[in-house]
Amino acid sequence: MRQFISICVSALLCATGLQAQQNQLNLYIWSEYIDPEIITDFEKAHNCKVTVDLYEDNESMMAKLEGGGTAVYDIVVPSDYIIQPLVKRKLIQPLQHDKIPNLANVDEQFRSPSFDPGNKYTAPYQWGTVGIFIRKPKDGDIEETWGLVFDPKKEPGPFVMIDDSRAMIGAALKYLGYSLNSVDKKQLKEARDLLLEAKGRSKGFTGGVDGKNRVLARGVTMSIVYNGDAVRGMGEDSETHFFVPKEGGDIWLDNMCIPSKAPNREMAEKFINYILDAKVGAKLSNFNQYATPNKAAKPLIKAEDQKNPAIYPPSDMMKKLEYLNDLGPHNRLYDEIWTYVKSK
């Protein structure tokens, strides 16, 4: 009898533990990248608890997944160029589209991207650009060029660079007139040398959010940041300005993915579907001030944001922007450059 009771109690405890796990969502996401109210509303709607861990760059996120994070997190939000490496290393799993009907809300231009045909592994989250956030000079005249970073004669004052290897190497390549996906060793050496010289004049590398905050605190005159961080910064200080340099730059698409061993896959799919709801998608972009890939959400975005070129670049600039590609075996060239620049 005692054995029977013990078995029943053990079964009850296991069932309770399973229920607790099912009512949990572990989100691993960039800092300042989701409205806290969205988290709270999702918890209420699905009677669950959401825990949030933060990262500042794709490479750190991937390293965390490789170190066991695939069995810890239910949702990660990687950028376009790192999706294929995540797939090849079996760090993310295919989505069950029948569980995510709001995928139908995604704008056609963001469906079935080249890095994930058929959206097998990804659902788009937000898109944006990388550029320069700067304190306006007293005369108000700014030459909108990467030369502010890479030409000592044009440097407007102290600056920091973003701690993002592809974004920074890409900026140097664009300034030199090359593709930010170049695999030409001569071009990459030029970019490396340009970065190294700029590093010597800079206040170092930091995350996009910190770069924005340092401009606001007047610790530096300019920083290289993601556009949404800068837009929020401009909202706090009218004496600041953001632009994508005239040479062009990086356009990125961040995506929601489910790690390969996610403990709460069902809740993860509910979360993806929730974010892709029109009203929630609009709430997300109105908070982040990044561009939405959600066609159904677009009419609900603040009118002033829809007209803001720092969020939705004009057509002539869009033609100068490039997505970062996974460069396969050539990725090591970029890794070598970044290691060399950071270590000097």
Descriptive report:
By secondary structure, the chain is of the alpha/beta class. It folds into two domains: 2-127 and 254-306, Periplasmic binding protein-like II (D-Maltodextrin-Binding Protein, domain 2, 3-Layer(aba) Sandwich); 128-251 and 312-343, Periplasmic binding protein-like II (D-Maltodextrin-Binding Protein, domain 2, 3-Layer(aba) Sandwich). The chain has helices at 2-22, 36-46, 58-66, 83-88, 147-150, 165-175, 185-201, 208-216, 227-236, 265-275, 278-288, 303-306, 315-318, 331-343, and strands at residues 24-30, 49-55, 75-76, 92-93, 123-135, 159-162, 205-206, 222-226, 240-243, 249-256, 258-259, 321-322. Strands 5, 6, 7, 8, 9, 10 and 12 form a seven-stranded mixed sheet that branches. A three-stranded parallel sheet has the order 2-1-3. A two-stranded antiparallel ribbon has the order 4-11. Helix 2 (36-46) links the parallel strand 1 (24-30) and strand 2 (49-55). The protein is globular.
